[in-house]
Each structure stands twice: as structure tokens, then as C-alpha cells.
Amino acid sequence: MKFFPLLWATLWRKKTRTILTLLSLVAAFLLLGLLQAANSLFSGGTQRLGANLLITQARVSFTSPLPMRHLSQIESLPGVEVVSWSQFFGGIYKDQKNFFPQFAVNADRWIATFSECRLPPEQAAAWKQSRTGVIAGRTLADRFGWKVGEPIPLLSQIWPQKDGTRAWSFELVGIFDDVTEGSCPRMGNMYLRYDYFDEARQFGQGAAGIFVIRIKDPGQTERISREIDAMFENSPDETKTQTEKEFSLNFVRQVGNLSLILNSILGAVFFTILMLTGNTMSQAVRERIPELAVLKTLGFTNRMVLLLVIAESLLICVIGGLAGMGLATLVMQGLAQSGAQFPPITADARVWQLAFASMFGVGIVVGLPPRISIVDGLSGR
Amino acid sequence: MKQILAIIWMNLRAVPNRAGSSLVIVIGIAGVVGVLVALLAMAQGFGVTLKATGKPDRVMFLSAGVTAELSSVLVPDALPILRELPGVARDAENQPLASAEVVVITELKRGTGAQRASVNVTLRGVEPAGFKLRPELKLIEGRWFTPGLREIVVGRGAANQFEGTALGSTLKFRGSEWTVVGTFTSDGDAHESELWTDADTARSAFGRGSSASSLLAQMTSAAAIEPIKAAIKADPRLQIDAMPELEYFASQSKQFTEQIGLLTGVVTAIMAIGALFGALNSMYSAVSTRQIEIATLRAIGFGGLPVVLSVLAEAMLLALSGGVLGALIAYVLFNNMSVSTLGANFTQVAFNFAVTPALMEKGLLWALAIGLLGGLPPALKAARQPVVEALRGK
Q1: How deeply is A338 buried, as exposed, middle or buried, from its count of CB atoms within 10 A (0-12, 13-18, 19+)?
Q2: Distance, CA of B131 to CA of B138 (rounded, Å)
Q3: Does B23 lie at the interface with A, CB-CB under 8 angstroms?
Q4: For site-directed labelling of A103, which of A189, B27, B63, B302 has its Cα 20 to 30 A away?
Q5: Which residues contact A13 (CB under 8 A, 6 or more apart)?
Q6: Angle between helix A258-287 and A302-338 (nearest 10)
Q7: Could you tell me which chain A residue has the CA closest to the CA of B274?
Q8: How confident is the model over A336-349, as pLDDT tens digits?
Q9: What are the residue ranges spanned by the domains of chain B?
Q10: HSE toward the beta carbon, residue A160, CA cutoff 13 A
Q11: Could A256 and B27 be called an inter-chain contact, meaning their C-beta atoms sit closer than 8 Å?
Q12: Residue A340: its pLDDT value, please?
């Protein structure tokens, strides 16, 4: 630690160079932070989804609704705790930019199935009383500043009412929250009452949409999925059952090779930065060979000199890297608040691990100096 | 002028001596341009595919207020009214050239390893008139489907991207088996991402009664579209929108193009800033290693301008070669790469990356701009240096 002033002084030996190097590191880590976060959304952003929820969809496509008669058959399977169903509503709130998902559900079954989301009992009671009542997650309510009692007009892209109008009016009667931090991954959704919806829609009566099944033991996932699909095999309403996590992962994978493209961008950026920083740093070391030789003359061991040089390049990488990642976090918070078009992206632990690994990797690789002999060094060779 | 050329030439010949730091500029800028061109080529390819879909004198009817075919339902009663609208062209047998089509979503597998996914693919049921009014359709393999049989033909893009779409294979939808009997092209448009079958066969297999998702009609001329728009708006029996086919498909690419545009902007800007700092760094060090040389030139009577220009020329030449390198890499890696992604209709649209000359030009302009900005401050610094001190190597 006593060498810190020495480190600090050498760092600022050439101010312009250090500042420019720092800034390009900041730019690089800013990109890393943003891209990796987007990337983890595509690959592993669904960790929070529990393994004890299964989704049964129509085999042909999850957009084809399954008939309600499947319900009792699924319920009768051993190991199934509760079955809920959900129909995508596809409504637009005021403007197409305000997209958020809405589902028509049965209130009692919703509460029993999604037990990791908490709806206050009095609001749950109000929801069961009001046919046009809807509930929204905390995140969604905050996004539009909704309070209980807020009227919510929606224009459904899929479902006209009996008279042909696509305009539906609802009223917010409840807001649901996490039970424990992050336990409810559905707080960006809205749920309306299926019974009201089914009566009012112009066509499609009696179709359930998809089924969401809570099972008692996550170890039984495989068996129960297989048994459900076996029951409906070779019927016009064949099913495909998977965990909620697989269902969501598949959903984002539909976007395609984007994560591959993101990775190649990252590769290009990183290659560039390694070149930049490596070059600048080795320049800095080469210029200072006479100085390093002086240090050795003064009794610094080879090891010590090596450590000093590596420490210096590490310092610059860590400062630049932290600043870049900090900036990335700020930008993502900004994006999350502007909301609308972006799915929520956060830099999770994996991104930070990668960032630190890169900082130290780059720092150490470029800090490895050539071996210096005192005589050559002092004579400037 | 002679001075300028002489000094630029002298400087450029010395660039190989500074290969290390010069490479920083070239590679840094190659990275920026490569990424920029690749992302633009993706947006371009997607846009081209959708905007190429349709003809100006064909009109599409969808239920009022929907933005995609998927969520549109035309009730059976409306279909004959639409077919008989004035301005709808007729074939040799005096039948209206109009096809009421059914769009359903099916799931097919795509990709390998971690990318493997079940993806939404459009299955379109068309009427015989649907072929007559789309002369761009061409069979490249096998034969067309037979109405009444569970047979499908697949678009070329779909055949490339999705499993189980080879000629002769069978796909299972709703408990029954469908045979792939042919592959078709459609001028590289969005229909090449689809599976096609007979409209009535699709209706009965997917329980659609006798309704349709959309109706496509050939008009006698593009000018005939506006009057019928007004006519159906005035008809209280119809809750239907009419729009030119081209307009519908162009609107389908809007969201994707905007999102990719935003991503491209952010990524390129950040990378460009990084590359700019790298270029500044390299040029400052190039100038400082040439300090004595530049001062000598100044001492023997060379003006400040030639010095500035020589440094700028070096920076811009390096930047340009970086730009060319990046554009070439993007071209080699990405041009005509086939991918598919989720389109606005909630189904996959297969398209090819299109690295066009215009995009490469855009990349090179960025490269030159970075070269200019990265070269200017060091150039000015070099020219402003006091000669005497610089000669002493201070």
C-alpha cells in the first residue's frame, strides 16, 4: 500500500494518454454492461420462474386456445395441486407504445396458483365482487401511476365484444406484490376476470387458452408433463406441457440468433479494446525502462517491479471498468424508467463477474513487461 | 502545394515504422464499421423482405382496428360483399380475383443446441384465386397441394429455417398428418417464410367454420383502391379496413426497423467513442515520436499547414483502411446470412442480411469522421509546438 503514491504518480505521467485510455475503457465496459445484460435476458433471465409451475398449451401453437374440458382431466392427475387457466387478451392501453400483457383468469384459481404473488385479502374480495374489476402488478401500476379505483380502458386487438366493439372498460381493484423480494415475476402484468370476458366476447366461448398447473413436488415435473400430454395425444386438441421457465425461455428464443449476434459484437469490441489498451500500456512501460532500471538499482527486486507495473495497469483497467459498468447501470435504470418499449434489463451477478474477469484479465495481460537488465535499461537500450 | 504533397508522402512512408500504434487505429475503426454495417444489414434485410411483399394494385381486407392478420376475423357474410365490390378485377371466367385466406399459427423447431426453440410459423390457407392473383409465386420443387387433401407447400425461407419441412416429410398438426409436397418462392418476400395449404382444408382442420382472416383482391388499377375504402367505410354491415397490400406489409417491418435502428445507434456511438479515444492516443504518440522531425521541417521553412495536413492525412488514411477492412469483414461474414425472427404478426419471418454498397458507404463515412476527429487535435498540437524546445526533445 505504501507504493500507492508511486503508482499514482506514474499513472499521471502523461495525463492525456491516461485520460484517453480511461475513456476508451469506460466506453468498452459501458457496452459490455449493456450488451451482456441484454444477453442474459435471452439466455438466463428467467431464473426467478419457479420449477413447480407447468404450462400446458396446444401442441400446434400456444396461440390456439385449448378447450375447457381439459381442465377436469388435468386436475384429476396425482401430484397436481391446482390448475388455473389464462387467455391472452391483447389489449392496447391508450397507445400502442404502452404495451403490457393482460390475461383473462379465474380469480380464485389465480390466487391459489400464483401463491408467490400477494394480493391483499380485501382487494382479493373486491376483485371477486366486481366483474369488470382487474388487478395489476406493482411494477405495472407504478409505470402508469395507477391507484386502486383507476378506470382502465383497453382496445383489444383480438377480442371484439358481442356488439363488435373492441373497446373494453375495466376498473383497477387490486395491486399485487412480491411475497419476498423478487418472488413474483409477473408484476408487469394485468389480470381480468375470465367469466366476464367469456360472456362478453363475440366468439371463442368456452375456450380456456393455456393451463397453468401448480404441482406439489418439483421432482415430478417430467412425469406429470408426460402424463398430461399422453391424455390428449392424437386428438385435435393435442397438448404440449413444459415448465414455466422453459416456456418463457422458448418465447425469447423465438427472437432468433440475436444472442449470437450480440456475442460477436462483444467479441469485436473486446478485441478492439485489448489492442488499444495493450498498445498504450506497453508504450508506457517501454518509455519508462530507464526509470524501472533505476528502481532496480535502488534495490527493488524483479518481482517487485513486475508487481508495480501490473498493479498500475490493473488500476487503470479497474477504474475504467468500474466507471463503465456504473454508467451502464445508470443507463439501464434510465431505460427501465422510460419503460414502454424495453423489457426490464438488469445487470445481474453474472454480468458483474464477467466484467471483473475482463478488467483483471486485460490488466494483467497488458501489464506483463519485458525482462529488464539494469545496465541495458539505464543506457536506454 | 508541393510542400504539402512532399511532407504527406514522407509521413505516409514512415507509417510502417509505427505499425503498432497505427494498427490500433485500423483495428479500432474496423471494429466500429464492421458492427455498424452488420447491424444495418440486418435491418435492411428484414425491411427489404417485408417491403417487397405485395403489389400496389392489390388490396387487403382485415377486420377494423387490427394491426396484424393474426388477430383479424372476417365473418362469412362479409366475404361475398367484398368479392363483388366495384373495381375488383375478374378472371377469364368472370370470377372475381379475390382470395379469402385463413392464417393459423403452428409450431416448428428451429436451430440447434442452446438456440433450439419451438417457433411460431404461419400456416396460410389460400383459395385457388390466391395463386392467380399472385403471379410472383413459383414452384421450385415438387408440386402444388391438392385441395381437400392434407398437403402443404413450404416457402423457400421456411424450408431453410425450420425442421421437418423437406419435400416428402410429414408434419403433425392437431392430431392429423400433413405431407409436404412442394417448395415455392415468391420473389424473396415474406410469404416465403410460410406454409401454404388449401383454405377450406385449413378451415376444417383448425375449426375455423367458414370465416377468414383476410381477403386479398386484385384491383383493376391502383386508383380503384381509394373508392372502395370509402365504400366499405360507409357500409354499416362491414366492420372492415381496406389497405393496399404493400402498405400492410411495410407497416409490419416498422417496429423491428425502429428497434434495430435504436440498438445500432447506441452500440455504434459507444464503439465510435472508444475508437476515437484510441485514435487520438495513437496519433498523439505518433506526433510525439516525430517531434524532432517535425521541428526540423519547421526550422528549414515548412509551414504549419503542411504539418497539420500530413498528420491528418495519416489519420484519415489509417481510418479509411480500417473502414474498408471492417466493411469487408461484415460483407464476408454476414452478407446473405439467413436468419429468422419474430415478426409483427407474431410469427417467424425469414430473411437474409443485405450488405449493400450504400451501407458500406455509410460505414466508411463513419470511419473518415473518426479519423478526422482523432487526427485533428494531435495535428494542431504538432504544428503549434515551439520549434526550439521541440528540437531539444522537450
Answers
A1: exposed
A2: 10
A3: yes
A4: B63
A5: A284, A288
A6: 140
A7: A24
A8: 665 444 455 555 67
A9: 2-51+252-391, 58-220
A10: 17
A11: no
A12: 43
